C-alpha cells in the first residue's frame, strides 16, 4: 500500500495533538488486515504497530486512546475479533489473522477487492473509486454511505462467482459502514465530512491535518447501535409509500 510522505510540519502538528499518536506506515514485517480503522490505529501506535499480540487490554487501551470508545464497547469488539485466532483459548489476535476470508473479512468491501480476485486486505484505489461515485455531496449522510454499500454488493455479486454475504455478514457490514460517522462525524444526525472519510481510507491515517480531533464524549455501544440502525434504514430500496402500496395491492401486475 502506498502512503503519503509526511512533511516535518505535519509530523510536528500530529505530535502536538494529545489525542493523536504519531503516524508511521507499516513496515515490511508489520501485520495489517482488511479493516482500515484497525490498520490506522496501529499506524498511529494506539494498537501495537507491528499488528501482533492484540490482547483484550491492548484493544481497550487503543480504541479508548484513539477514538474514545468506552471499555465495555472495546472489550465487546475484542470478543468479536478473537474468533480469527484458531488457537484454543486464545488471548490475542493479529491483524494478519483478520484476513481470513468469510470469518470477519467479507466480499463487497468499500475499499478492498474480493478474496476471489486476489489480495483482500490491501487498499484498492479502483474499488474505492467505485464506492466514491455514490458519495455525491461534501457532507455524507447515511443514505450515501448505504448507497455505496449496496452498489459494492451488486458489483461483487455480478462478477464474483463465489460471492457470499450472509445475514451475520450483513450485520457486521452495517457496523463497518457506520464507522466513519462514529469516528469522524455527527452521530446524532448521521453525517460526516466526505473529505475526512476519503483521507482516512486512502492513507489509513486519522485526519488530524484536516482539522479532525478525537471526539470529547465517550462512545458507547448505544451510539454504535444508533448509527448502525441509520445505515440499516437507509439500505432499504423500498420507500415508505411503496411499503404501504405493497400491503394494499397484493397482485403481480404493474411495471417491472
TrEMBL record:
<protein>
    <submittedName>
        <fullName>Cloroperoxidase</fullName>
    </submittedName>
</protein>
<feature type="signal peptide">
    <location>
        <begin position="1"/>
        <end position="16"/>
    </location>
</feature>
<keyword id="KW-0479">Metal-binding</keyword>
<dbReference type="GO" id="GO:0046872">
    <property type="term" value="F:metal ion binding"/>
</dbReference>
<dbReference type="InterPro" id="IPR036851">
    <property type="entry name" value="Chloroperoxidase-like_sf"/>
</dbReference>
<keyword id="KW-0349">Heme</keyword>
<dbReference type="GO" id="GO:0004601">
    <property type="term" value="F:peroxidase activity"/>
</dbReference>
<keyword id="KW-0732">Signal</keyword>
<dbReference type="Pfam" id="PF01328">
    <property type="entry name" value="Peroxidase_2"/>
</dbReference>
<feature type="domain" description="Heme haloperoxidase family profile">
    <location>
        <begin position="19"/>
        <end position="226"/>
    </location>
</feature>
<comment type="similarity">
    <text>Belongs to the chloroperoxidase family.</text>
</comment>
<dbReference type="InterPro" id="IPR000028">
    <property type="entry name" value="Chloroperoxidase"/>
</dbReference>
<keyword id="KW-0408">Iron</keyword>
<keyword id="KW-0560">Oxidoreductase</keyword>
<keyword id="KW-0575">Peroxidase</keyword>
Amino acid at each position: 500500500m502506498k502512503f503519503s510522505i509526511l512533511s516535518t510540519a505535519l509530523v510536528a502538528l500530529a505530535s502536538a495533538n494529545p489525542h493523536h499518536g504519531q503516524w508511521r506506515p507499516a513496515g515490511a514485517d508489520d501485520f495489517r488486515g482488511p479493516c482500515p480503522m484497525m490498520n490506522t490505529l496501529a499506524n498511529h501506535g494506539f494498537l501495537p504497530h507491528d499488528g501482533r499480540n492484540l490482547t483484550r487490554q491492548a484493544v481497550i487501551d487503543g480504541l479508548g486512546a484513539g477514538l474514545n470508545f468506552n471499555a465495555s464497547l472495546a472489550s465487546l469488539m475484542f470478543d468479536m475479533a478473537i474468533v480469527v485466532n484458531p488457537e484454543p483459548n486464545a488471548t490475542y489476535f493479529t491483524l494478519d489473522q483478520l484476513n481470513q476470508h468469510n470469518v470477519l473479512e467479507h466480499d463487497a468491501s468499500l475499499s478492498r477487492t474480493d478474496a476471489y480476485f486476489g489480495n483482500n486486505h490491501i487498499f484498492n484505489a479502483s474499488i474505492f473509486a467505485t464506492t466514491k461515485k455514490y458519495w455525491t455531496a461534501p457532507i455524507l449522510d447515511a443514505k450515501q454511505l448505504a448507497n455505496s454499500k449496496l452498489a459494492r454488493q451488486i458489483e461483487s455479486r455480478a462478477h464474483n462467482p463465489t460471492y457470499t454475504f450472509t445475514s451475520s455478514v450483513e450485520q457486521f457490514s452495517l457496523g463497518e459502514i457506520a464507522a466513519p460517522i462514529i469516528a469522524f462525524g455527527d452521530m446524532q444526525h448521521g453525517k460526516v465530512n466526505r473529505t475526512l472519510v476519503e483521507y482516512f481510507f486512502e492513507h489509513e491515517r486519522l485526519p488530524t491535518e484536516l482539522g479532525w480531533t478525537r471526539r470529547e464524549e465517550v462512545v458507547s455501544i448505544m451510539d454504535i447501535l444508533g448509527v448502525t440502525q441509520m445505515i440499516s434504514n437507509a439500505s432499504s430500496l423500498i420507500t415508505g409509500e411503496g411499503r404501504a402500496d405493497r400491503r394494499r395491492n397484493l397482485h403481480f401486475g404493474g411495471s417491472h
